[in-house]
Amino acid sequence: MLGRGTSFNRFFRHRRQFNKLSGATSEHQRTNENHSYYKYAYIGGAATAGVLGFKHFVKTAKLDHAKDETMSEKKLENLQIYKQEEVKKHGKDADRIWVTYKDGVYDVTDFIAMHPGGDKILLAAGAAVDPFWALYSQHKTKEVLEILEGYRIGKLDVKDVPKPVADAFSNDPERHPALLVRNSKPFNAETPPSLLTDHFYTPNELFFVRNHLPVPDIKTENHRLTVETIKGKTVDLSVEELKKKYKSYTIGSVIQCAGNRRADMNQYKKVQGLMWEGTAISNAEWTGVRLRDLLADAGIDVFDDKIKHVHFEGADVDPTGTPYGASIPIEKARGDEVIVAYHMNGVDIPRDHGAPLRVIVPGNVGARQVKWLRKIIVSEKESDSHWQQKDYRAFSPAVNIGDELKWNTVPSIQEYPVQCAICSPAPNTKVDRGDETVDISGYAWSGGGRGIIRIEVSVDGGETWNSVEMEQEEKQDQEHMYAWTLFKAEVKIPPGVKEFNIIAKAVDRAYNTQPETASGIWNVRGLIHNAWHRVPIIVKD
Amino acid sequence: MLGRGTSFNRFFRHRRQFNKLSGATSEHQRTNENHSYYKYAYIGGAATAGVLGFKHFVKTAKLDHAKDETMSEKKLENLQIYKQEEVKKHGKDADRIWVTYKDGVYDVTDFIAMHPGGDKILLAAGAAVDPFWALYSQHKTKEVLEILEGYRIGKLDVKDVPKPVADAFSNDPERHPALLVRNSKPFNAETPPSLLTDHFYTPNELFFVRNHLPVPDIKTENHRLTVETIKGKTVDLSVEELKKKYKSYTIGSVIQCAGNRRADMNQYKKVQGLMWEGTAISNAEWTGVRLRDLLADAGIDVFDDKIKHVHFEGADVDPTGTPYGASIPIEKARGDEVIVAYHMNGVDIPRDHGAPLRVIVPGNVGARQVKWLRKIIVSEKESDSHWQQKDYRAFSPAVNIGDELKWNTVPSIQEYPVQCAICSPAPNTKVDRGDETVDISGYAWSGGGRGIIRIEVSVDGGETWNSVEMEQEEKQDQEHMYAWTLFKAEVKIPPGVKEFNIIAKAVDRAYNTQPETASGIWNVRGLIHNAWHRVPIIVKD
Fold it and tell me: What is the residue range of the signal peptide feature (chains A, B) (predicted)?
């Protein structure tokens, strides 16, 4: 029942039975029958001081491997030559797992537990990683190639070296040149911070983009949406039929990537993932039909005890044909606010944002709001998708880069906590003291429909604060606020300083607040960074 | 529309129109039609450095008054004598408001805006405060009497001096001697921290007590519960009838006072209110009937757009006959979890906890879980009760003691944010280095049914953390966790230190976390303190 890390005793020593400690009285025995100790496993990790980053990870991986006396230092010309059929024997069920990349052969057995993408690496077991890396171009960095070289065992026979993989992204749509591209294949780009707060509803062309795979090119008239139950496919609709058959609803709702502000968390201590700054978030008005109307039409009783989750499947697929997928709890799915959308800010959803259909789950993280939606499935379990099970879960700060990631010990991110960031001015902006003030603008938002009740700004490190005026959606009240809150203010330059930080933070309807720094929320994947946002400003006299 | 404080320009200077700043493009105009700027008023308060406390408040009140050249310094024998009928002319609608206390006559006009209890003070306008102070004994301190003396204008004619008020609390129930009494009349006491985590369900006699008024002495067989709609009283039941008529439900649910851990916030900077330490929180199993079943029986459609709130009225009344009251939003009221309870941990609810009936609103603050429940009212508006409108709202840190409290600029507290505290060891416990470890125990809980997903402990100021094992209710899942989470662990004493802090903090299902210190959450009334809990430990070599 206890998944206790080996390092447990370095912190908690001579541990006695918890039951013994708390079971001292008969009162306790009487009332404690219906709950369990240790309902959640211990999430491992030693008390590790200092800053561990990707470089440390690289070093550890290589050193560990060197200890195993493999051949990372051998010269390439001396390497053994392997045939593809030999590599194939080292598939996912073999004792030792091999992969190839270009003409290299690698034994990655000892690396699997450390792979940031989890056991997805096994999809290439006994074969080439090239088609996967063509889709996940984050692998194509010097550091990753160095890690891989550490596991090199040989060279692939020249006749078996795979041809360069065709660019799966060549049919991606054109994008607005203003977008700040963090990764081009798959395309991931954020809105320029200087433009984000100009619009209460982010224009479609400036809406941040978070793609996991190449963008499907779907002809709307050919697209079908199906709803599946245990009895089989019970609804099968074209987009036109969906629009005609169900009542339409429009809702203002934010989409935020769980990695938003990762670069900021990375400043505190290195994390893994795409280095999003603070604008992997946008707000749009979405129009579509209620998910619960579709479910009802499929003969699904949304109050049936056996239905716990609703799965969504996109038309974007990886090289094995596996689609992007995610799920949400049934209680959320049957709410007023969850829709299958076909319009974004009043026009057809653009390709990058899920054309022709996307599920909108207001108040939840972006990863559950599946684009290019083609299938809805009800289930007793969460989605088995990689992105539900092996990603988008925020570990404890006790889990460090290089530690084994026990994904089932942390829940999938659904509702987002309270977030707030300054978009303008940019960090290290120089201001003239003679101007006396600095114009600032930014956004705040919280999950679960919890409206922002105030936003406060400090220029003295958080010793004193001032509330600022807020812009909110009139149609949404504090208990159902899925759109964001924008703020603008003029902040007085403090006297007698050469530089200062502007800090902003927000409070939501349940009086949730943000932590001061990343100290308590740092996590290996750099998810959900919502510490106070600090923008350093330089004052010129 | 803007309730802008006069101190606004001290921070934000030369403010331009917000609309001008953000209305730069036609895109903005197209999409921004349906929301309003300034939906919430600016919450005033200057950027004030340093620590302001109650003493500062006393001093300010007296000095301001001295400037008005009234007679705070005159000798008592020289004071003018007033008849009661003269005092009566200075009632709540007069230009100058007078009150009497014992034989003193006071012009409190200039104090009303500063009264921590809001305009409740007007209930005594033109008359004696004595019967009110008999109920709110927090007034009977040297500091409050000093403030009052600052407003003295004369002496009451000896024939009009009221007789000492009978003790309204003389019929309060007996209490367990272990309770830590913070105020005796009305009775407010917390559970000894060393006992709190011994029981997953707090024994009734150790459950913390937060009373606002004397405890009603209700004979269960005489008690009636009524449900009122716009059409009048539509349900009128005895406790026996209620038990027979509706299905019973049992739920484990925490009650926490919004002032829990106020003493801790007070260490950061002085606040007003009862100095609760960290155990104004307890957990019990409550049995009763669903509120929505009662509402349905009263012919109320809980999905009717006109019904926004459900009000509760207790049998505890102030000297004017006004009962304790509160309300919750209809969406909460119609949930599975809200019950009218008659049992607490399997036995009749004790007098201090609401005998014979109490509403249990799992996931919300204690103040809404009205005891001695006698009336339920549905309404378009929140309760007008003092405790809904002029208390239990947490202001911005920008609002200081002595500032006017604009209650309508902040929402009433309903759902609680994530909370966590160490109960044992006590602060400044001395430990022997030879013991190597310290046993710790504590609790965590969050509002809205958001389960605790982990609890982490640090002994190095938050640089590194370790997850600890948790005890939770087996019947409740992470999306519906209304009972608390207990934790116990053995923490290793860090080498080479003479003292250290044990810090504990929790993460809830929506990945909400706690702030590091009170810096961003400090509020004048000391409500909802949920910063990291720190317990200093002294190491003996």
Answer: none
Percent helix, strand and coil across chain A, each to the nearest 5: 25, 30, 50
Asked whether the bond before A186 is cis by omega within 30 degrees of 0, the reply is yes
B392 included as an active-site residue: yes
Helix (H, G, I), strand (E, B) or coil at B58: helix
Query: How far from each other are the two terminal CA atoms of chain A, in whole angstroms?
Result: 63
Q: How far is A93 from chain B (nearest CA, A)?
A: 34
| Cβ–Cβ contact A505 with B under 8 A | yes
Q: What is the pLDDT of residue A19?
A: 30
Q: Which residues of chain B have pLDDT under 50?
A: 1-73
State the distance between the two ends of chain B, measured CA to CA, in whole angstroms: 64
Q: Residue for token digits 């272990």?
A: B178
Residues in chain B, total: 541
Predicted pLDDT at A76:
66
Q: What is the pLDDT of residue A75?
A: 62
Four-way CATH pick for B77-165: 3.10.120.10, 2.130.10.10, 3.60.150.10, 3.40.50.300: 3.10.120.10
A38 touches chain B (CB under 8 A): yes
Q: What CA–CA distance (Å, rounded) separates B338 from B336? A: 6
For residue A259, give the nearest of A413, A433, A443, A60 by alpha carbon.
A413
- Is the preceding peptide bond at B515 cis, omega within 30 degrees of 0? no
Tokens found for residue B135: 């109920």
In chain B, ranges of CATH 2.60.40.650 domains: 419-539
8-state DSSP, B74: S
**Chain A contact for B415 (CB, 8 A cutoff):** yes
| Record: contact A40-B470, CB cut-off 8 A | yes
State whether residue B268 is helix, strand or coil: helix
- In this structure, CATH architecture of domain B419-539: Sandwich (2.60)
Distant-in-sequence contacts of B17-21, Cβ < 8 A, 24+ apart = B18/A469, B18/A471, B18/A488, B21/A439, B21/A441, B21/A488
DSSP letter string, A496-516: T-SEEEEEEEEEETT-----S
The CA distance from B247 to B240, in Å, is: 13
Name the residue with higher pLDDT: B229 or A527: A527
* Beta pairing partners, B378: B310
What are the Cα distances from residue A85, in Å, to A89, A98, A100, A105, A126?
A: 7, 12, 12, 12, 9
Binned at pLDDT 50, 70 and 90, residue A122 comes out as confident
Q: A291 with A340: CB under 8 angstroms?
A: yes
Q: With beta carbons under 8 A apart, name residues in chain A contacting B411.
A: 453, 478, 509
> Cα(A520)–Cα(B513) distance, rounded to whole angstroms?
8
Q: Which residues fall within 8 angstroms of residue B524, CB to CB, at 6 or more apart?
A: B271, B272, B395, B399, B400, B401, B403, B405
Q: What is the pLDDT of residues A343-372, one digit of tens each?
A: 999 999 999 999 999 999 999 999 999 999
Residues of chain B with CATH 3.90.420.10: 180-390
Put the strands of the sheet holding B533-540 in their side by side order.
B429-432, B533-540, B499-508, B452-458, B466-467
Q: Where in chain B is the domain with CATH 3.10.120.10?
A: 77-165
**Is A57:A114 a contact under the CB 8 Å cutoff?**
yes
Which of A191, A328, A465, A476 would best serve as a mutation to test chain B binding (most B beta carbons within 10 A)? A465
Distances (CA, A) of B176 to A89, A243, B168, B208, B212: 73, 65, 20, 11, 19
Q: Which residue of A has its CA nearest to B520?
A: A462
CATH superfamily, domain at B180-390: Oxidoreductase, molybdopterin-binding domain (3.90.420.10)
As to burial, measured by CB atoms within 10 angstroms (0-12 exposed, 13-18 middle, 19+ buried), residue A84 is middle
Calculate the CA B430 to chain-centre distance: 33
Among candidate residues B450, B182, B233, B492, the one with its CA nearest the CA of residue A417:
B450
